[in-house]
Amino acid sequence: MKRFFSVLLAGVLGCAGISLAHAEDDLARIKSAGAIKIGTEGTYAPFSYHDASGLTGFDVEIGRAIAQRLGVKAEFVEGKWDGLIAGLDVRRYDAVINQVGITDARKAKYDFSAPYISSQAVLIVRDNNTAIKSFDDLKGKRSANTLTSNFGKLAQKYGAQVVPVQGFNEAIDLLLSGRVDATINDNLSFLDFKKHKPDAKVKAVASDKSAEFSESGVLVRKGNPELVAAIDKALAEIKADGTYKKISVKYFGTDLLAK
Length: 259
Hints:
The protein is of the alpha/beta class. The chain is 44% helix and 24% strand. The protein has helices at residues 2-24, 26-33, 58-70, 81-84, 86-89, 104-107, 150-157, 168-176, 187-196, 211-214, 225-240, 243-252; strands spanning 35-40, 49-51, 54-56, 73-78, 95-101, 110-112, 117-118, 121-126, 142-145, 161-164, 183-186, 202-208, 215-221. The strands form 4 sheets. Strands 1, 4, 5, 6, 7 and 13 form a 6-stranded mixed β-sheet that branches.
């Protein structure tokens, strides 16, 4: 019996050691492979979406710039938001760059880089809607949101019935067709949408500037201090050499660092 427990303990410690080794070796493995795999939606303009050239967007270009400074290629793996973060757990990719908000709940399970962008949540309704003027007016109303997003949780907090969608475009489509009353979404995404479709009959009536919704970072598996430090260094470099400004002006028409 004593030998059994000794063998069992050795097995448990061995598994823990393997898991720790995987975490500690992520940066070395990425450099050895010559590529960093990045999880992203591919349907979330202007951060990650497709145009005639293929996958593009603010987050996509930030990911490529980080990879370049790590001395590797960026390989993007696309997935739906509600399963995107969980893809890290099964090692589908090494990081998620998809405007992932830095929250205490996520920090308990994952590691984040330093924030690389900030925005705010906005409440969007049809332009002829006079009943919804604030988040408090959402009680009992239907809001189109991805279920596991910060925006979906905010809608639930105010008593809305969340109608699940896969992303921003689907939420706006449901709103315009009258199948939902509202959507809570990112202000930068809304501004980009209005820039391309200025006649769309939607408006933003309220905003939430709390830190939970404003700051986003690069998400990686827990226990990767070397990888986080390397990503932070890369982010600092692209902010210092003008790369970040060039990317932000391209997608938002302004230098977000100056905001």
